[in-house]
Specification:
With about 375 residues, the chain is α/β, with parallel strands linked by helices. Helices cover about 30% and strands about 25% of the residues. Strands 3, 5, 6, 9, 10, 17 and 18 form a seven-stranded mixed beta sheet that branches. The chain has a six-stranded parallel beta sheet with strand order 13-12-11-14-15-16, sandwiched between helices. Strands 1-2-7-8-4 form a five-stranded mixed barrel.
């Protein structure tokens, strides 16, 4: 069975900005095959625009083309394929952009964000089982973005890409837990395992960085320093719990953080995807401290740090992909913190847009004028 859906299709990477003029994403009617064994048809409610999507549009993170983008989203299950046992029709769900097979060594070691089969499927632009369900616009097969492809009214995903949530959680809020919150809060809780009372600095205040501010605040960081070059994002970081803010366009952020934290932050988080900013975060980290990087630089970029400091100062650098998360454990837990008022993630929501306006919205994201814009897939 084939159903029709309306989605945002990227047919080639590297279009020139502004995207409102170059129109890299083509909103069109597409064909979507029924879910196969272990797969689920989901009606997408809201999908967030993330720098991980933008990095495919501009070519910084190459992916197989053509592709329906979108990976941070919420929705409602409409149909299940044979063998699906984790969700049922009518369930409200948040998508996970790493489908975790549960059988490889990383999954069995509690590090599902590094799932080997999930990583291979994502790199190939396929679902976990290897299939592709989109077609149309002259293409026999259209690739899936991170197993999700949420910029479509309907999508088919592996059941391993879904986390069921309570039906009373607003779906616009729920969407934010699929990437920004899962990644940013997870970097603090899972990767850094930051204890209460430790000093922290967050470099870069996009959706993930501001989520790290939320996570550090909930974990009891003191002081908590937020660093960016945009005044409005620094103001929002203060509302989210930062005790100090540093405008890196006006002052040396390393010196400022080291002064505020009296010698360096015990934990520093970088979410820009820049090797230069990562080096700054490392330099602003205290002796014996931990630097966590969440951003995804362009693959050819290299980091240079004083090698001797790793030993002589017992320093640690850690990568954090998807917040080192186990989504079916962490998403319900973080939603619980939201309900308690400890993670006010709704403050990350900048605007709600129509799918037809997605190219303009990517201009807003690229310019740093938006934290999280949500596509409402119900709007024609």
């Amino acid at each position: 069975m084939i159903v029709r859906t309306r989605g945002a299709l990227l047919e080639a990477m590297g279009a020139a900005a502004p995207y409102a003029e170059s129109q890299p994403l083509r909103v069109a009617d597409l064909d979507l095959a029924a879910p196969g064994p272990g797969e689920v048809l989901v009606e997408v409610a809201y999908a967030g625009l993330c720098h991980s999507d933008l990095s495919v549009v501009d070519g910084a993170r190459p992916r197989a083309m053509p592709m329906v983008l979108g990976h941070e989203a919420s929705g409602v299950v409409r149909e299940t394929g044979l063998g699906v046992d984790v969700v049922a029709a009518g369930d409200h769900v948040v998508f996970s952009y790493v489908p975790m097979c549960g059988r490889c060594v990383p999954c069995l070691s509690g590090r599902g964000s590094l799932c080997e089969r999930g990583a291979a499927a994502n790199a190939a632009g396929a679902l976990l089982g290897g299939g592709r369900r989109f077609s149309g616009c002259g293409h026999e097969a259209i690739h899936h973005h991170l197993g999700v492809s949420a910029f479509s009214r309907l999508t088919v995903v592996a059941q391993e890409s879904l986390v069921a949530i309570d039906a009373d959680v607003p779906l616009d809020v729920a969407a934010l837990f699929g990437c920004a919150v899962l990644t940013g809060v997870g970097a603090v809780v899972n990767t850094a395992r930051m204890p209460a009372g430790a000093s922290a600095a967050v470099f870069g205040l996009g959706g993930v960085g501001l989520s790290s501010v939320l996570g550090a605040r909930a974990a009891g960081a003191q002081p908590l320093v937020a660093v960016d070059v945009l005044a409005d994002k620094l103001e929002l970081a203060t509302r989210l719990g930062a005790t100090h803010v540093v405008n890196a366009a006006d002052v040396d952020p390393v010196e400022a953080v080291r002064e505020i934290t009296r010698g360096g932050a015990a934990y520093a988080f970088e979410s820009v995807g820049s090797e230069r900013v990562l080096a700054q975060a490392y330099e602003a980290t205290a002796r014996g401290g931990t630097t966590v990087t969440v951003g995804l630089p362009e693959p050819s970029r290299m980091l240079s740090i004083p090698a001797v400091s790793l030993v002589a100062e017992e320093r640690t650098v850690k990568g954090s992909y998807m917040g080192s998360a186990v989504p079916r454990r962490d998403i319900p837990a973080y939603i619980g913190l939201y309900r308690q008022g400890r993670l006010p993630v709704d403050l990350l929501h900048t605007a709600t847009i129509r799918l037809d306006d997605i190219n303009v919205a990517f201009d807003e994201l690229a310019a740093g004028r938006a934290v999280r814009q949500l596509v409402d897939l119900s709007l024609d």
